[in-house]
Every structure is written in structure tokens, then in C-alpha cells.
Amino acid sequence: MSVCWNDKAGTFHPDSAADYLPLRQLRCLQLQRLQAVVKRAYERVEHFRQRLDSVGVKPEDIRELEDVRFLPFTDKNDLRDTYPYGLFASPMSDIVRLHASSGTTGKPIVVGYTQQDMEVWKNVMKRTFLSVGLHQNDIIQNAFGYGLFTGGLGAHYGAEALGATVVPTSGGNTDRQIMVMRDFGVTAMCATPSYFVHIIETAEDMGLDLRSLPLRVGVFGAEPWTEPMRHYIEEKAGIKAYDIYGLSEIIGPGVATECVVQDGLHIHEDHFLAEIVDPVTGEVLPDGEEGELVLTTLSKEAMPIIRYRTHDITRLIPETCPCGRTIRRMARVSRRTDDMFIVRGVNVFPAQIEAALLRAERNLPHYQIILSRKGGLDQMEVQVEVTKEMLGDTISELENLQKRFAKAIEDVVGIRAVVTLVEPQSIARSQGKAKRVIDTRKEDQL
Ligand code: DLL
Q1: Gap between the Cα atoms of 94 and 112, Å rounded
Q2: Torsion angle, CA of 13/16/19/20, rounded to 10 degrees?
């Protein structure tokens, strides 16, 4: 049986001990793990061996934590080029789980976990829940999608490890989500923030005031959101809303989480080494400066990842947190350095849309992606210019084409888009790079 007691700002739990390690001990642990993970990657993954050899670095050259900067970066293209299992450092017989996330073009990227990796994932998710003040008496409704997306199962196993009661609703079916939330006495909700806003608005339409329910905590992540959105959610639902961050390539959710102070996300530094680099030069920036987050897994067996360019922009917060945790915080991620956007929690690259359109029509027409938010739900419209040749087609041929585009997009990206055929030359041409994405999801629209 584990014991809980209050610290200055929240609860301290023995299973969160790694959050509070003395800094010297934490850095020492990180170095030992970094040395081991680089050795493992070098010895077992040809891709990493070649990369390290190409810059003349051997695992033994990592003598202190700062030496991590001698190592070459990894990015999504490395996962794409080695699809599906080329970065695995464990035999398939040791892999107990696979997940996948969007690649930059047609194919997803695949990530694998050993039993030991699953233990780590459970542990960091359990610590995430403890950080936001949840415990074994909570009833946690998990509306992150179950499936290839890491959100659903990642949060699920963490909540079970906590000893809480998990209600695995997955995403969608909003009326039922609200019924479950009310009837099951749910006290905490996991979801993408935009989906929870949709839940709030649907509940309002149903005449239900969420403030009258026992719900007290929201655990939100998988997409950027803002302070005004937090205030809106907290006020409308009568809860505390927390930001959690993670990415499939590193583990899934569980990389970083807010604590009850709600001022930055604590990185689970005993498992993930964080650096901030200049997105253009790749040069490491000092703590406090904003740049691109680069992460190295310190304990992953199946798929160790060295210096992963997340493309997420943030900064490390050097000051210690009033909650007493020693693991460093990072600021909220508000934007990315690349053209990836997130619709209803699903990562999408414009190049995927392009690949899908090309599947349906050999000559790629001019297109534009319009993102909007209605009733809290993200909408994706893909406007495709018909060509003069297509104009000769009958209405039913055009309708067919529209359907083929929509189907191809759903097949490639996994979510539905509204496809609108527009007249030739009606999409604005830009002087330089084509502006493929128009995002009208403003904070005030929530
Ligand atoms: O979104 C894992 C996750 C699930 C995190 C549930 C939190 C909760 P991917 O699908 O691989 O993994 O997408 C990772 O999503 O690089 C960020 O750009 C974005 N992202 C994730 N969490 C946040 C957040 C999951 N709290 C990509 N704020 C990341 C802003 C986020 N962006």
C-alpha cells in the first residue's frame, strides 16, 4: 500500500520519488543511462552506428552529460527511411507493443516497446497523474483515442498503475461521454483540449452544467492550447485543467506534465534528456532561451532515440518549482518549426494531403487546407481547384472525383476532411512558397 502526504503544493507520493531526486544524483543517473543507451544504440542499430561513425564519435566518448552534443541528431525522416522496424534495438520476440504516428508523407512512423519499456511508460504516466493531484480514489474517464495513437493506451495503463478506476471511453460519441461522466461519478477526464471544449458545449446544449458534477481535474494534451483556453475550460467545467506533453517517437504521453502549480511542465528527466537548440543552426541554447526541444531517451530498450528533433518550440525553465520537484520544467509548447498541424489530436502534414490527392488524381491540382473550429471541434476543409479539363466532366463525374479525394485523404491521414471543388485559378497564388494551410482556429473561437 502506498502512502500519500501533502507537500507544499500538492501531494507527495513515494512512487514520485524520482521527481524529487537531489540534482547531483539525478544528473549522475542521467549520465549513466545516457552512456548505456548510446552503447545499446551503437551496438544494435546499424543506422545509429553509421551516424556515429560518420562523425567519428564512439560510445566511450560520452564522459559527461554535456557530451551529448557530440552526437548527431535524429529526426522523423530517419524513422521514415528505416520504416517499419529499422531503428529497433530489440529482437521482435521482445517487442510487446507497436504504435504508429503520422510520417511526413504517406507512410506512418512505427514505434515499439519491450515489457520493460511498458513499465517505464506506466511509471511516467502514473507520475503524471500524481503530479496533477490524482490518486487511487479517482475515476478517470479516458477520452484519448485507443489504437495506434499512443494517447489512449498510454493514459490507460498509467491510470491503472495508479490504482484509479479507468473508464476507457476513447474519443468520439460525445453524448455518451457526457452520460458516462455524469452517471459514473467521473472525477477526472483525459482528452485533447479541443475535444473537451466540444464536450463542454455539447453539455450546455443538453442543459447540463458540468460544474454540478464531481469532475475536478482535466488532463489535456496532444495538441497546442493556450492560457485563455485553460481559463475557459476551468470556468465552464469547474475543474483544474492541466497540460501534459509527449510524442510517440519518445514514448507517447508521459514525457512532461504540469503539477498543481500550473506553471510549466516537469520533464521526467530520469528517462528523457532534454536540450533546447537553435532550430536553424542546431546549436545548443542556454536554459531559459526559446528554441526547438531535442529529446534523448535514457531508458528505452526497444527503440532508443538519440537527440530527436521534436520541432516543438519551448524553453527550459531554470528556476525550481514551488512544488518541490527537482526535475526541470519546460514552457507550454505553442508552435512547431515545421508545417505539421494537429486536427482533433491527429498529426497531419500537408505533404500527406498532397500524397492523398495524387492517389486520386494523377495530375496534382492546386489545393489549400482550411482549418477552422466549430462548437469546439476542429474542421478540416480541403479546397481543390478543378482544372479546365475536369470542367468538361459531368456533375456526377465531378462528384465522384470529390468522393475519391475525400476517401484518399481519410485513408492516408485517418480523419475526414470536407473536400470542396473550386473554380480554376480561385485559390490565391503566392509569390514564394505556396501557402497550403490557412488556420483560422483562433483563441477567441476556442
Ligand atoms: O500526441 C502523445 C500524447 C498523447 C501527448 C496524449 C499528450 C497526451 P504524437 O501523436 O506523436 O503523440 O504527437 C506528438 O503532438 O510533437 C507536439 O507537436 C504535439 N503535442 C503533444 N502534446 C502537446 C501539448 C502525442 N501538451 C506531437 N502541447 C508533439 C502542445 C503537444 N503540443
Answers
A1: 10
A2: 40
> Quick check: bond before 84 cis, omega within 30?
yes
Mean pLDDT of 351-358: 88
Q: At what angle do helices 115-131 and 150-162 cross, to 10 degrees?
A: 70
Cα–Cα distance, 283 to 302 (Å, whole number)? 28
| Domains of the chain and any CATH numbers | 1-337 (3.40.50.12780), 341-445 (3.30.300.30)
The beta-strand segments (E) located in 326-408 are 329-330, 335-336, 341-343, 346-348, 367-374, 377-385
pTM: 0.90
pLDDT tops 70 at residue 9:
no
pLDDT-derived band at 1 (thresholds 50, 70, 90) equals: very low
Instruction: Using the mean position of ligand 1's atoms as its centre, give its distance from the Cα of residue 396 in Å.
Output: 40
* Mean pLDDT over each residue of the chain, to the nearest integer: 92
Helices (H), 45-88: 46-54, 76-81
* 373: pLDDT strictly greater than 70: yes
- Residue whose CB lies within 8 A of the most ligand 1 atoms, among 245, 297, 378, for a mutation test: 245
Q: How far is the CA of 67 from the centre of ligand 1 (A)?
A: 28
